[in-house]
Amino acid sequence: MTKTYQRHDLSIDQRLALKTAATNLQREFAETFGLETIERFLHSSYDEFAGRATIIKFLPLLAERFARQRLQALAKAEGLSHDERPTVLFLCTHNAGRSQMALGFFTHLAGEQAVAWSGGSEPASEVNPAAVAAMAECGIDISTEFPKPWTDEVVRAADVVITMGCGDACPVFPGKRYEEWVLEDPAGLDLESTRPIRDEVERRVRGLLNDIGATPLHSTVR
């Protein structure tokens, strides 16, 4: 039985886009999860963004991307995935600056050697423009990323959890390696003031990659 959204009015285009998203996810995860689980994750992911989105036409795409990440995490957490690569989760308060820059550097430098996700305890409505610009100076595009919350399955699937200022709001699960990176929050800062934070994030990410046995694959430009 197809579920409906009770809190958000959907246009015809949105309904069609969500139907396409459900089909895509079912095709990808059919051998791992049932239809009910896939739709539940898609629907809850949509609701997560619908409550704070400023541009609603992208909601189905964001919901599909977030649901895919969550299903991948659930598969790993429950031992249903054959992906044994180290997985790192970067957490900060708004998932708009520090954790997004860390994710950008990690993905760029690790390649296929490891997996990284990011999240926030109080997700913002968009990624910090100064962080986007600072990363672009390094040849890394994070403009298509989006702030999102952390979820239980994502934390459970992570081998290493890096926290950046979210304090008691950051989740603590037994058996995980936790590190707190003390970094200034770039929220409200201009590009010039964001650059030193970006450079420190890169330094720490490179050190983390060495710790988990992943060799940085690229240099970064300035």
UniProtKB/TrEMBL annotation:
Keyword set, alphabetical order: Arsenical resistance, Oxidoreductase
Lineage top rank: taxon: Bacteria
Assigned EC number: 1.20.4.4
EC class: oxidoreductase
GO molecular function: arsenate reductase (thioredoxin) activity
Domain Phosphotyrosine protein phosphatase I residues, every copy: 86-211
Keyword RNA-binding annotated: no
A Pfam family hit: Phosphatase-like_N
Name the record gives this protein: Arsenate reductase ArsC
Organism: Actinomycetospora chibensis
Taxonomic lineage: Bacteria, Bacillati, Actinomycetota, Actinomycetes, Pseudonocardiales
